[in-house]
Amino acid sequence: MAYLVLARKYRPQTFTDVVEQQAITQTLSNAIDANRVAHAVLFTGPRGTGKTTIARILAKAMNYEQGPTSHPCNECRSCTEIANSNAADVFEIDGASNNSVEQVRELRSNIKFMPAHSPYKIYIIDEVHMLSPAAFNALLKTLEEPPAHVLFLFATTEPYKIPTTILSRCQRYDLSYVSQAALMNHLRDLCEKEGCPIDNESLEMICRESGGSVRDAMSLLDQVMSSIDKEISYEKVRRILGIMNLDSLFSLAAALLGKDIKMVLTIVDQTFQSGLDIKKFYASVMDHFRNLLMVKLGLDAASLPSLAAFDVERLQKQAETVSDVYLNQILSFLVDEEERIKFSSQPKIAVEVALLKILHQSLALPMDTLIEKIDTLKDSFLGLENGSRSGETSSAASDSARIAKSPAPAGSDDALPGESASPETPLSAPAAAEDLPAPDNPESPAEEAKPSASSRQDPAEIWEQILTIIDKEQPFLGANLTNSTLTFRDENFLEIEVYGSKKNADLLNQKQHKDTLKKVCAEILKRDIDIMLTRKSGTAATKAAPGTTARPDKHPLIAEALEIFGGDIVNTY
Tens-digit pLDDT profile for the chain (573 aa)? Predict the structure, then answer.
């Protein structure tokens, strides 16, 4: 007799033999005993979890010679024929290769005939989602009202591809992945029956690689048994299955977290040279960082059944050196890059590029840290603002005293018409200029020291009025004028001194902005005004006009953002 693989040799023959699907098998057993089995049953779930196997057991239970039973004997004619896949009244159909409407019509024409020697004629259609829309439509009426001697048993891994009209006519059972512990016990029993001793570490590796599929686990175990003549060891199983060594995964994670580029590239190259699938290697890296994150979040060994207790301790030790935020950031990046690597014609290069990106990306700061840094900047700004105000006050008092003692000589570049001090002198000082003594220099007429009529007005108050109007009409222009001062050159000529970058001064010198300034100044002063904008060195905190305060909510960048996004200042704290 030809060799039977373990998956076929030890295929469950009764409901009690099915591995960890008790909820479904118990429900079906109760339905059989109560004679309440639906005429159409749909089994869904991942591959290798027992969908078709349970359908076969249900077929044996319904076609038992002495009537439906939840415990078929596996010895009668019907049971043996079904077990050997040659039953006359049980038809197993592959939905992928029999998906046309003509084949469904042929099925409909055959169901009217009575079964040969069994109570029911049963149709098991595997991968039923592969039927064409026309085939589903042809099956609708028959599925809703089949003959009393017909049962339909469907199995699929993708139930969402089945039309809702079909789903509504079926009784659905969803199978789940099998747990690690249940798989371990099942494989251990098989090894004892086969007389093949195997250590727990190797069994854990096989179960972890199977991903919760009983059939996959049995196929991997069969492969290991066929490849190893003598004793089965962990290292031999790892090489046969092409699984990356956990030590290499820990080394790679340490290199990534430690920003060791050379070590990362060396491990990737060694993995590639050893013949391991580079895409499978990348999946192992993702799984390792996922385990690191789970351990960092507080999960224990019981929550990570795919890992041994010793490996969980190593994960805990490695996770101590990094925050959960950074681990989540790395894992998110690995997941985002997975599809690109999966479809890359050069997967090794794609993996190297992805890991190098992780090495060069910086840690995303937690929100509370960002808020703390913003608060620190705010405190620094407020301290600078308060210092600027006190500095302006003391500077104004010092300059006033200096002016009273020694007025600026005539011909000095710093002396402007209507002013007796340098440009650093506060604009509110001219009111006291009338009390200054006559200059000792005979070349400087006393009339030149007298302020003009326009300069008798407080320039700071006028400037605030101008800014108020501009802020309402053009907030962006007003924000750029915040760090500027106003000087009267004569009755019809104003100079606006702009403190800040050259870009800011060039922006204000644009024709449309100057025209706006002229218009607003004319409205305030009730006469036509010419203006000149000059750029001055220094910072806004040290050059702001007396009587005005720094306005962080009117910073040019903030104003520009408000203009772009159409926002508004809610609070400036």
Answer: 578 888 888 999 999 999 989 999 999 999 999 999 999 999 999 999 999 999 999 999 999 888 889 998 888 888 888 988 888 899 999 988 888 889 899 888 899 899 888 899 999 999 999 999 999 999 998 898 899 999 999 999 999 999 999 999 999 999 998 888 889 899 999 988 888 888 888 888 888 888 889 999 999 998 888 887 667 778 888 888 878 778 888 999 999 988 899 999 999 998 888 888 888 889 889 988 988 888 888 876 556 655 666 677 888 888 888 888 888 889 999 999 998 998 989 999 999 999 999 888 766 656 666 677 776 776 666 655 555 555 555 544 454 444 444 444 444 444 333 343 334 433 333 333 334 344 444 444 434 433 444 445 677 788 888 888 887 777 777 777 777 887 777 777 878 888 766 777 777 778 887 888 888 888 888 888 788 888 776 654 434 444 444 454 455 556 556 566 666 655 544
Q: Can you give the residue range of the structural domain that contains 549?
A: 366-434+447-573
Q: Are residues 546 and 566 in the same domain?
A: yes
Q: List the 530-536 sheet strands across, edge first.
A: 484-490, 493-499, 530-536
CATH number, domain of 210, equals 1.10.8.60
Domains: count for the chain: 4
Q: Do residue 280 and residue 227 come from a single domain?
A: no
Residues 356 and 370 in one domain: no
Burial class (CB in 10 A: 0-12, 13-18, 19+), 449: buried
Domain presence at residue 439: no
Residue 317: both structure tokens together: 């030790």
Q: Output DSSP code: residue 545.
A: P
Q: Is position 455 within any domain?
A: yes
41's tokens: 């049953």
Q: What's the rounded Cα separation, in Å, for the pair 310 and 204?
A: 13
Measured distance CA(136)–CA(119) in Å, rounded: 26
Would you say the pTM of this structure is higher than 0.85?
Answer: no
Contacts of 327 (CB under 8 A, 6+ apart): 289, 292, 293, 296, 319
Token couple for 541: 């905190």
Q: Read out DSSP for 87-100?
A: -SSEEEEETTTS-S
- Check whether residue 197 and residue 167 sit in a common domain: no
